[in-house]
Amino acid sequence: MTLFRRVVVLVVAVIGLCLSAKADTLYVNIQAEPGGDGRSWNTAYRHLNDALTASRQGDELWVAKGTYKPDQGTDRTAGDKNATFRILNRRQVYGGFKGTETLRETRDWYRNRTILSGDLLGNDAEVIDVSDVTRFDNSMNVVTMTSGDLDSMTIIDGLVITAGFNPLGEGAGILVGADSPIFRNCEFLRNGASKGGAAYVTGTGQAKFEYCTFIENMALREGGAICYEGRKDSLTRPAVSQSHFIGNRAGSRGGAISFVDAGTPRVASSVFYGNRVEGIGGAGGAIHADERTIPYVVNTTFVRNLYGDSSGVGAAVAMHGAGVLNSIFWGTEEENQRQIAQLDTTGLDTMIAARACLVRNDFDFGFWQNDPMFIDIEHPAGPDGFLGTDDDGLRVDAMSTAHDAGVIDGFVNHWRTDCIGNPRLVERKIDLGAYEWQRPGHERYREIVREMREDGLVYMYRHMTTDWDQKDPGPAPECFPGRNLSYEGRQQGITIGKHSRALGIDVTEVLASPVCRCWETAFLIYGTYEKVAYWGSGGGASNDAGRRADLSRLVLPAGTSRAIATHDAVILTLIDFTSAEVMEGDAVIIRPLGDTFEVIGHFCSDTWERYHVRFPDSTSTGVDGDVDVVAGNGIHDVHPNPVQSELAFSLSMGGMVQVIDVNGGIVLTQRMTQGRQSLSVSSLTAGVYALRVVSERGVSTAMFVKR
Question: What distance, in Å, lies between the first and last C-alpha atoms of the chain?
């Protein structure tokens, strides 16, 4: 095997410079001293509105834990009900920081709550009610995103949005126009409006909610949590996924969600618990969709949702036409309401089509009707109190009918995760509901990550998400035409690399298929790679022998590992996985045994990203809140990134530090010792670089962007 390492010219606008050439990070901390410029935690803005005013396209805003109100900041009037946090295009607002972090990947939105509150006077009663006078002075829209040009690079992540109150209008928590922002890891708590208590999305935008929770929001009319109004066809990402709706209510339609003229919205891997419609003739305790909307609901769990009047219909859902797949609908014996309501189909060419669903007391829509055997139906959040973690109460028992009872269709085959962040497709069957049982032993995430840090393993990746239409130009001229990585796939690779490094996982050898989408995957995660012909597609005894040798034996420094970027067709010849089981971006974790190997884990991209909030007790943290440098070779805590002049980082062992440009040339070199270090990069031109340390224990690489 010829060794050939190089760093590649990325023609794709240098991955858009990952952000933009002028992107910056602005810091916000309600505990900061007045007059800060937002350039560091020590000089943070005190008020979020001031940071939003100063921000430019591509900027990240890091917001520390605490409570922020829209009437606070420069040129704001205290007590102004019209005050709002107005977010413009391509701003990325992240919460969950303690206020000392140097890596975004180490924030914890569960335990460091960054709260945007509309309770301007701080006098709200705990239970939201339309007649509650303590809310009449609240902000009418806590967050506003209505410029009409917001795309999916506008991200709101890790915030609690609460106490908006707009009984005569829409979207007390957030008001979204014909825009397409993404909300991730957000909590919407006790907001109230006429429509869309927590969120009102209108126009032709495609706003997405991922890993969000909606708790005790209220709408006088429809959409207690969300009201989607306007056509939003999207065949690639669901409107709602991996989200929880708990105790929301509406007066007439959609206790949690109301879809109005909304095209074909997707709801995937989500939980609806205890939502209800309260008015006479109410429809859809959890979801209502009008005759101009055909939702697709897949792998979703509905429990104890209700309509409040005997003339109501659809304790869980009320729809004219829909596809419902692999979902659980479960009520109570006391309230024996029908879960699914087929609304009038006059003049329509569609109706509700349910496949592989478990529905209480319903032979029309439920293939099964027996008890799904939830782990703890009384406590959806489980012992830790956080929704979307491994002890959630609405997981099903291993002996449940819902286990391995689902079917796989085209959409499921491309949707990667359950509502925790684990792989969705496991073995030859898919579970019903929002949670997926993993292969035996693969759920030992703490033990697996501990072994990743201590022992030499092999990470065998299927390449990141690709552009199946073959329109992406690829990372080099020879790659086009061809099936190259998509924009989403490139971000996916960068994110996996950042999170694996933040967890202290050390990889010193990176092999890749010669196909562009594979070596670009390796470059994005690790900043280096070696093309190896036998990791391309194709069989033969020599190919098989080389592959198995790479998985079985490591001749590397102790405590370091090997990564491989290849194809699903190759992976399936080596391990006993099914054809649909390894999604684009998934990693199979392998323990070499000398003459053979064993598979010990299976991570999707979200498994890497969410590990530290799911298992904070097994994530080493230092005094500054970042992951400690793990013993062994490696570069950690690279910041700021993007950087303009001075790059800071930590070395777990001293050695020769090199900066490599996109042509593979070494442009800076300096010998450094173990510990915290810094390097001037002001002389470099703008672009993507690899930071590499070469020591007696091997080579380790991290990526950074020079502005």
Answer: 37
